[in-house]
Amino acid sequence: MKYKDLPAIKSKLQNIRAHLLGGIEKNLKTSKDEEFTQLVPDITDDATRSSSQQMLLNLGEQDREQLIQVEEALYQIENGGYGICKLCEAPIPEARLTLVPFAQYCVACLNEIEQDQKNNRSNGSDPFEAF
Ligand SMILES: [Zn+2]
Asked: pTM here?
């Protein structure tokens, strides 16, 4: 699948990644542990994949998940397979990718997944369960 605006989507992904990683750097800089800060290498393109693995430890769970999806999308843009729904393998519409450049599922599958998740939430820990 060829997307017209792939360069725009790609730079969006890079912005999101920079933002997520920037948040980590900020956390590190405000941390009292100076030595640990110095252990974190500068982020260059080559080092990004391995250094960000290391940084994942410092991310919140949601950010971490998003960063993984962003990294995967960037990888797929370079190596193929970007914009293919992981579940049904249908191409994801460009309009959706423009909004959510790291989307891994088409809208139909996403709805199904969300339904499944709702059905599986029987432990009552989710405050939105009433919906
Ligand atoms: Zn799908």
From this structure: 0.65
- Which residue do the tokens 């790609």 mark? 10
- The pair of structure tokens assigned to 36 is 């640990």
Q: How many domains does the chain have?
A: 1
- Residue 44: what pLDDT? 52
pLDDT at 8 over 90: yes
57: domain CATH number is: 1.20.120.910
Domain residues for the domain of 86 are 6-120
27 and 19 in contact (C-beta within 8 Å)? no
CA of 103 to the centre of ligand 1 (A): 11
- 56 Cα: distance to centroid of ligand 1 (angstroms): 28
Expressed in angstroms and rounded, the spacing between residue 92 Cα and the centre of ligand 1 is: 8
Q: Is residue 1 part of a domain?
A: no
Residue type, 74: L
In a domain, 129, yes or no: no
CB-CB contact of 20 with 66 (8 Å): yes
pLDDT in tens, 53-109: 566 666 678 888 899 999 999 999 999 999 999 999 999 999 999 999 999 999 999
